[in-house]
Amino acid sequence: MRPSDARRRSGGRAARAILILATTLTALVVPTADSLARQRKAPEVVAPLPPPPPPAGPVGLPDRLLQDAAAYDGYVRAASATTPPFADASAVSKALKQAGAYSAKTLVRGAVAYGAIAALEDADFVASIRQAGNTPDHRRQMVGYILANPAYVSLFADAGAAAGLAREAIGPTNLQLYATGRAVKQSAYDIQQQAWSKAQVADLQGRLSGAEAQALSDMTPDPDRLTAARRSVAGVAPIPLPNTPLPNSSGNTPLISHALQLAAIAALGEATDDAYDQLAALAVDDDTQACLSAAKRNFHQCLAVARPNYEDIFCMGQHALRDTGACLARAVGFEVPPEPLPPPAAVKKKVVRKHRAG
């Protein structure tokens, strides 16, 4: 082999080696499309967070129930302020209209609503209910439980204290109404020394018809009391209570149980104006309504036979005021004071007949 041929072969082998090396390096340095796809990571997809559930509506009651509560409050305040002795027949007539100015059904509904407003003043009670009702589904289910079972409300914090607030908002004021009735009844006897009290009442049938009509009419709330009820349920100005409220250890009466049920639904923000009919059906107490209806019936029967002014005073004190206060005080677990004992009857002296001897 000639030297030139050997150099050509050697150069060819070197060139092939260089080509192989270059191809290999190119494969290492320049990635293919497949290798790029493998190396490129897909971006991580993060699902958006669901929106938070809508919050509960504001604590409140239907305005028509607030009107009932204000009507109840206004009646008890005004009737309790009846102050004997009376100056003349016109004063008796005015007081008589005020004392009988209620319908039993509306007064009970107003008392339940007023008790609910008082119960809502317990912040822990309201907070525990709103915490449990943290979604629309929970609130809807809770309303069903509350309506079906009054005992369900007792599971929440401070339910006993809330019941105590309702009791103290209703009981003492109606004990005062009861005491006013007793004082008015007593004045019917004391005032008979004055000639005008023995005169016959003017328009006997007209005053009876007016009293009977009041029993069938809805009560109109006093504007000031309605404003106070709205401010109280909104948490602006609480209902003034006469005493430090205590839970009722013997259990809630039906009226207080219904007041707590109503307060619980109000705390959930579900006691809207649209729900008035359903909530008004809850604001009842059959026994108390029957008691008030009997008091009104006795009042009307008393007026039907009363003639002089002092007898109208007796009817007003005994039935329109005293009996009404007793019904409402007992409805929330208060006992009315016992009637004073009548004076002892005069002791009849025994007549000893002496028989003559013989």
Structural overview:
With 358 residues, the protein is mainly alpha-helical. It has one domain (63-331). The protein is built from 14 helices and no strands. It has helices spanning 3-29, 33-39, 63-80, 89-99, 104-119, 123-132, 136-148, 159-190, 204-214, 223-233, 254-267, 276-282, 286-305, 309-331. It starts with a helix and ends in a 27-residue tail after the last helix. Mean pLDDT is 87; it is low at 346-358.
Brief summary of the model shown:
With 358 residues, this protein is an all-alpha fold. The protein has 14 helices and no strands. It has one domain (63-331).
Please, how many helices? 14
Number of domains: 1
How many strand elements?
A: 0
Radius of gyration: 42 Å
Low-confidence stretches: 346-358
Roughly how many Å apart are the termini? 202 Å
Helical coverage, percent range: 55-70%
Using brief descriptors, characterize the structure shown.
358 residues, disordered C terminus, mainly alpha, 14 helices, single chain
Map the helices and strands:
Layout (H helix, E strand, L loop, with lengths): L2 H27 L3 H7 L23 H18 L8 H11 L4 H16 L3 H10 L3 H13 L10 H32 L13 H11 L8 H11 L20 H14 L8 H7 L3 H20 L3 H23 L27
Helix pairs in contact: 3-5, 3-8, 3-10, 4-14, 5-8, 5-11, 5-13, 8-11, 8-14, 13-14
